[in-house]
Every structure is written in C-alpha cells, then in structure tokens.
Design goal:
This protein has helices spanning 3-18, 67-80, 85-100, 124-138; strands at residues 32-38, 43-52, 55-64, 145-146. The protein is α+β, with helices and mostly antiparallel strands. Strands 3-2-1-4 form a four-stranded mixed β-sheet, with helices on one face. The termini are far apart. 37% of the residues are buried. The model is unreliable at 157-161 (pLDDT under 50).
Amino acid sequence: MNADQRTLYEEVILEHNRHPRHYPKNPRGSTHHARGFNPLCNDEIQVHLKVANDTIEDIGFEGAGCAICMASASMMTEAVHGKPLGEVDRLFHRVHNMLAENAPAEGVGKLRVLEGVHEFPMRVKCATLPWHTLQAALEQHSETVCTEGPSPFCPQPSQPAPPP
C-alpha cells in the first residue's frame, strides 16, 4: 500500500468511525435482526433490516466496537441500503474474499478502501464481523455470529432445566 492509499484508508476509516451512517438505528418495521461478537476486540454489533420485495428497504446497526468494525459496518449499510438481495449476496462474497482471502478488490466500489485492512491482519475479523452479521440477519439465524471458533456462531449458553 502506497502512502496515498494508506492516507485515504485512514481518513475513510476515521470518518466512518466518527460519523457512522445508519447508526444507532433499528428501522421501524424491521423484519430481520442479528447480533455479532468479536471476543478478541470486544466488537459487538446488532444489524437490523427491513426487507420487502427481495430488497433491503432500510438498514441500521447498533453496538460498539473498534474503529475498523464501526467503519466497516457504516460503509456496509451505505452499500446495501436499497439493494436487491441477490446483489447484496454477491457483494458480501466479493467483500469477504477481498478482506479474508486477499482477493482482488473487484466489484466492491467504494468498499475498496477496506482493502487496507490487510496491512493489519489482526483487524480482518473486525472488518468482516458486520458483513457476517448482515448475512446471519438475512438468513434469520438466531445464534450470535462469532469471529472465533470452528463455527461462525458463538455457543449459546445452555438454559437450566425448569424446576419440577
């Protein structure tokens, strides 16, 4: 990453962290929700979607996290708001491949700036958490998305047996 790219990366991350879009927001009439947690960085977000006619009509997120997680969530909400679900799914895979697999940043538009996360390998999970949480919301998973472990979902605490 050259100096100009690094400066742009830092500026965009800081701007979206200071002034996250669609935050804190749980859109009226939300139909899909999911929670994500990154125990290494203590990032915790909830994604809320209003889906109708196979389109994300509205989106918001809540929670707290590091600058990269919050910026990624903010940029994600801008990128998918008003988009058809098929387009959102394709974008998820492109962004995930760019962030987690170091694939070329093709077809991701302004999200290309997140490519700079590769300079900080420990932060890749911070940047991908909102995207995995979005996917969980779309798939209507009730389990918490987790960045650690063999499964993308955090183990749920077992409920104590009801008293006899």
